[in-house]
Design goal:
This protein is mostly helical. The protein folds into two domains: 136 residues, Farnesyl Diphosphate Synthase (Orthogonal Bundle), CATH 1.10.600; 204 residues, Orthogonal Bundle (Farnesyl Diphosphate Synthase), CATH 1.10.600. 67% of the residues lie in helices and 0% in strands. It contains 17 helices and no strands. Helix 3 packs parallel to helix 8, helix 14 runs antiparallel to helix 15 and helix 15 packs parallel to helix 17.
């Protein structure tokens, strides 16, 4: 195998680009990632940007499914050192439409800066990032081939989809946390067991929040099995959004997501209390997801995501509570109970897909 390298750029330039573009593509992660201890801040920010590149490929409406799969394979090849980042960017950037945000187009155009940061990470961290992007890209391509308004078949198919887009990210973050801290590494088996469930809780919250936005672009990620015989076809969901059947299905899905986020709480408490930055990073994600779920549960027939959006004031309160409670397991439990107040509980432990080493 002939290894293709990316043209060198100054480490300071690459890090400066990473910091600047992160704030433009995600204000949320630009706020939460710096809570992590160094060097995790650099590694996790880099991981997020690589995943965002993969997402941008899948979300670009002007690319055919064949083009998306081809560019996804090229991205994996770039990470493996088998293709040049510049050639990948030069081929993809001109094909992106105005549907892709300007910051995302710049991210693609400057892929070489992102890869320069990746190359400076340790071997273990690089391997974790490569595996995550490969599994995510292959999984998203597989799901997109059959994605339409008819939805997913059942809950196991939803589990699989959530693993591809979020569970594998939880595994990757766990690997980065363990590479950073020998103390955390001692708990790696338990953390890895819970990581996909943590990711699924966050992803299910996003799926429920984005029902109408996804419909507008012609896809639905809800399981048909929950709607069979009670709410018509999923393709008619908007017209049925206020029916008792839809509300019952939404309540069931909220309960499942709530159960996954309870696993996220277990995951967070496995992180040593002295690692307050990592705990805050986890707690803020869980807290915002719980509050969003609570809004969805109260308004299952919402027509616009703005109706269930968590206010800036509440976000600030979550950040403060997360900061104050990170050191104490008891306060973490209290923080979770406050955020989850009123949410339905799942009747049984939720299932989730676990990744296999090396996939």
């Amino acid at each position: 195998m002939v290894t293709t390298t990316t043209s060198p750029c100054a480490p300071s330039d690459a890090l400066a680009f990473q910091a600047g573009i992160l704030e433009r593509v995600s204000r949320t992660f630009a706020f939460t990632i710096p809570q992590l201890p160094s060097p995790l801040t650099t590694a996790v920010a880099n991981a997020y940007l690589l995943c965002r590149i993969a997402d941008t490929i899948e979300d670009e409406p002007e690319l055919s499914q064949g083009q998306k799969e081809a560019f996804s394979r090229r991205l994996v090849a770039v990470l493996a050192g088998e293709a040049a980042a510049e050639e990948f960017a030069e081929a993809l950037a001109p094909l992106l439409s105005e549907h892709t945000l300007p910051a995302e187009r710049e991210l693609i155009a400057q892929t070489r800066h992102v890869l320069a940061v990746t190359r400076a990470l340790g071997k273990r961290e690089q391997a974790a990032l490569r595996r995550c992007v490969q599994v995510m890209s292959e999984g998203m391509s597989q799901c997109q081939r059959t994605a339409d308004l008819s939805g997913l078949a059942d809950l196991p198919e939803l589990d699989q989809y959530c693993y591809y887009v979020a569970g594998v990210v939880g595994e990757m973050l766990t690997e980065l946390f363990c590479a950073y801290s020998p103390e955390i590494a001692e708990r790696q088996p338990e953390l890895m067991d819970l990581a996909p469930s943590f990711g699924q809780g966050l992803q299910m919250t996003n799926i429920l929040k984005d029902i109408n936005a996804d419909r507008a672009r012609g896809v639905c990620w809800l399981p048909r099995s929950l709607y069979a015989g009670v709410c018509g076809e999923l393709s008619d969901l908007i017209g049925e959004a206020t029916t008792a059947g839809h509300q019952a299905a939404m309540s069931h899905l909220v309960a499942i997501a709530h159960a996954h986020l309870r696993n996220a709480l277990r995951y967070t408490l496995l992180i040593p209390a002295r690692e307050q930055g990592i705990r805050r990073f986890c707690l803020w994600a869980v807290g915002l997801a719980l509050l969003t779920l609570r809004n969805i549960y109260r308004r299952p027939g919402f027509e616009d995501a703005g109706e269930i959006k968590v206010s800036r004031r509440t976000v600030a309160a979550v950040a403060l509570l997360g900061r104050l409670s990170a050191r104490s397991d008891g306060l973490v439990h209290a923080f979770f109970a406050l955020a989850a107040r009123g949410l339905p509980a799942a009747a049984e432990r939720p299932s989730w897909v676990r990744g296999q080493p090396g996939r």
